[in-house]
Amino acid sequence: MFARVVRYRVPDGRLDEAVEAFRVPAGLLSQLDGNRGGYVLVDDENSTALTVTFWESRAAMEASEVRATRLRQEAMQSVGGEVQAIDRCGVALDFSELARI
What pTM did the predictor assign? Predict the structure, then answer.
């Protein structure tokens, strides 16, 4: 499994709006072949957010790049935020509750 982790800087007081801006893109990404879900995480103290999306293969993650780029840019433009970093990782250890089932 692979993961794309993206860090965002969001203007103070706009994290709730940013979460809402990610709702539609999250739904669209979840419909792509090879998507295995994801998370939107927020840090109120630093006014940052992270998206973590999981993919069954590197090829599936790479195939989603163009669409994911457009969706994240649209979400951030709507709240005046910016993408700070994008990391693409292999999942080395899964200790989530779902992994135990």
Answer: 0.92
